[in-house]
Design brief:
About 20% of the residues lie in helices and about 35% in strands. It has two helices and eight strands; from the N terminus they run E-E-E-H-H-E-E-E-E-E. The strands form two sheets. Strands 1-2-8-7-4-5 form a six-stranded mixed β-sheet. A two-stranded antiparallel ribbon has the order 3-6. Helix 1 (about 25-30) packs across helix 2. The longest helix is centred in the middle third of the chain and has 9 residues, at about 40-45.
């Protein structure tokens, strides 16, 4: 999965997380965005009720987030966006 993080323009403090696929799981988003260091830490935050998706507390680590979804955790706001300008590379 390819992920690109970009700070949005203007006064908005949300960071756009551009994903290459159709969705990204909540725990993976927190790791890729650097909000947490490990999957275990992501699990603790999510199951502890510290993450919200679109304004509602979410306790599901595997919650599928799609472009347009907004996640708030640890005072940070992350917005999932479609993979803008990303290139896929075959290995």
């Amino acid at each position: 999965m390819k992920v690109k993080i970009r700070r949005r323009q203007g006064g908005d403090d949300a960071r756009a997380i551009h994903i290459a696929g159709d969705y990204i799981r909540l725990d993976a988003l927190l790791k890729f965005a650097g909000v947490v260091q490990t999957g275990g830490e992501a699990k603790q935050y999510i199951q502890g009720g510290l993450a919200s998706v679109n304004g509602e507390v979410c306790l599901m680590r595997g919650k599928k987030l799609r472009p347009g979804d907004v996640v708030t955790v640890r005072g940070q706001t992350l917005k999932v966006a479609a993979g803008e300008g990303m290139q896929e590379h075959d290995s």
